[in-house]
């Protein structure tokens, strides 16, 4: 068990399971995009580790970019999604894969979709390492999800509780 600030967390998904799932996701994306050179657009801060490992497993040519959004306060999603770093306009005409650490209510994914309406991309796909189906309130299709998990707060592998826990190589669940 570990403690971050005032809360305790127990081990949930180990590093080897995460790596296998990400390798599998990279292979699926490669098979789908065929000869396109995709741009992986990571959603900071949480997705930095997923993007890094996903790209290492993606053996064909690809590019990377980032946006920065924030909606979480403590262990709760707020309905307001703040845009802290916006989109790169050079994404026009490209195959874009949005890379999220986790999709919870879907507010962030909805905001991302809106941001991309202003850019004429060739195709847009959404990849998320974790998905909480019980918390999801949108009709937006998620193209790649590695783990569907219960509606419980998790940390590690990029995900934080008030700033802490992002450096953990495995996933912990709120006790
Ligand atoms: P959504 O907008 O409610 O779908 O939340 C998406 C964002 O909230 C994610 O990209 C994460 O940054 C954060 N988030 C959602 N669930 C968790 C969690 O269980 N632990 C840590 N961060 C989370
Ligand atoms: Mg995130």
From TrEMBL:
Its cofactor is Mg(2+). It catalyses: IMP + diphosphate = hypoxanthine + 5-phospho-alpha-D-ribose 1-diphosphate; GMP + diphosphate = guanine + 5-phospho-alpha-D-ribose 1-diphosphate. The keyword Ubl conjugation does not apply. It is found in: Cytoplasm. Its EC number is 2.4.2.8. It is an enzyme of class 2 (transferase). GO terms for biological process: GMP salvage; guanine salvage; hypoxanthine metabolic process; IMP salvage; purine ribonucleoside salvage. GO terms for molecular function: guanine phosphoribosyltransferase activity; hypoxanthine phosphoribosyltransferase activity; magnesium ion binding; nucleotide binding. One of its GO terms (cellular component) is cytosol. Keywords: Cytoplasm, Glycosyltransferase, Magnesium, Metal-binding, Nucleotide-binding, Purine salvage, Transferase. Residues 17-161 form the Phosphoribosyltransferase domain. Pathway: Purine metabolism; IMP biosynthesis via salvage pathway; IMP from hypoxanthine: step 1/1. SUPFAM superfamilies: PRTase-like. Pfam families: Pribosyltran. Belongs to the purine/pyrimidine phosphoribosyltransferase family. This is Hypoxanthine phosphoribosyltransferase.
């Amino acid at each position: 068990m570990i403690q971050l600030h005032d809360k305790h967390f127990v081990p949930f998904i180990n590093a080897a399971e995460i790596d296998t799932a990400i390798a599998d996701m990279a292979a699926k994306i490669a098979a789908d995009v065929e000869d396109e050179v995709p741009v992986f657009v990571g959603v900071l801060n949480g997705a930095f580790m997923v993007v890094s490992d996903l790209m290492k497993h993606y053996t064909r040519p690809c590019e990377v970019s980032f946006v920065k959004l924030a909606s979480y306060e403590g262990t709760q999603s707020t309905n307001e999604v703040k845009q802290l770093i916006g989109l790169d306009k050079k994404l026009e005409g490209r195959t874009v894969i949005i890379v999220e650490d986790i999709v919870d209510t879907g507010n962030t994914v909805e905001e991302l979709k809106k941001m991309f309406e202003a850019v004429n991309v060739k195709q847009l796909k959404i990849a998320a390492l974790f998905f909480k189906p019980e918390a999801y309130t949108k009709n937006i299709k998620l193209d790649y999800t590695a783990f569907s998990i219960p509606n419980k707060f998790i940390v590690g592998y990029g995900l934080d509780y008030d700033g802490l826990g992002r450096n953990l190589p495995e996933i912990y669940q709120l006790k």
